Automatic annotation (TrEMBL):
<protein>
    <submittedName>
        <fullName>MarR family transcriptional regulator</fullName>
    </submittedName>
</protein>
<dbReference type="InterPro" id="IPR036388">
    <property type="entry name" value="WH-like_DNA-bd_sf"/>
</dbReference>
<dbReference type="GO" id="GO:0003700">
    <property type="term" value="F:DNA-binding transcription factor activity"/>
</dbReference>
<dbReference type="GO" id="GO:0003677">
    <property type="term" value="F:DNA binding"/>
</dbReference>
<keyword id="KW-0805">Transcription regulation</keyword>
<dbReference type="Pfam" id="PF01047">
    <property type="entry name" value="MarR"/>
</dbReference>
<dbReference type="InterPro" id="IPR036390">
    <property type="entry name" value="WH_DNA-bd_sf"/>
</dbReference>
<keyword id="KW-0804">Transcription</keyword>
<keyword id="KW-0238">DNA-binding</keyword>
<dbReference type="InterPro" id="IPR023187">
    <property type="entry name" value="Tscrpt_reg_MarR-type_CS"/>
</dbReference>
<dbReference type="InterPro" id="IPR039422">
    <property type="entry name" value="MarR/SlyA-like"/>
</dbReference>
<feature type="domain" description="HTH marR-type">
    <location>
        <begin position="11"/>
        <end position="145"/>
    </location>
</feature>
<dbReference type="GO" id="GO:0006950">
    <property type="term" value="P:response to stress"/>
</dbReference>
<dbReference type="InterPro" id="IPR000835">
    <property type="entry name" value="HTH_MarR-typ"/>
</dbReference>
Amino acid sequence: MADQGQDLAVAEELGHQLVRLLTMVGRAKAQFSQATSEGIERAAYALLAHLVREGPKRITALADAVHSDTSTVSRQTSSLVAHGLVERKADPEDGRACLLVATEAGRGTFDRARAERTKHIAAVVADWPASERRTLVMLLDRLNTDFENYHPLGEVR
C-alpha cells in the first residue's frame, strides 16, 4: 500500500506541475499569438501545423487526428481557407470529397510561427545540459502518447 500512496503523491505533484506548465504555456501563447496571429485563431495553428507536417487530409481525418469534432475543425479550417493558408482540393480517391491542403502562404505562416516558438523554447532551456533537454523531449513524447491512448471512460476519438 505504501507504493500506491507514493504513486498517488507523485501523480498529484505531476498534476500540479502540469497545471503550472499549462498556465505558463497559455500565457506565452496569448502573448505570442498577439504578435504573430496574422488574423487567425490560435486553435487554427494546430490544424495548419498538422496539414504542413502530415500532408493533405479530409476534414473528418483531420478532426480525428487532432482529437476534435468535425464541426469545430470545419469552422477553423474555413478561417484558414479565407486567409489563404489552406485550400480545398478534390480528393483523387473520391471526387465528391475534398482534401484540405496547406498553401505556400500557409507553410510560410507555419514556418514563421514555428521558428518564433523554437527561439523562445530554446531561450527557456538554454542553461540546461543537452542531456536534460533530450530527456525532457523523450519524457514529454511518452507522456503525450500515453495521454492520447488513455480512455478512462472507454470513449475512443
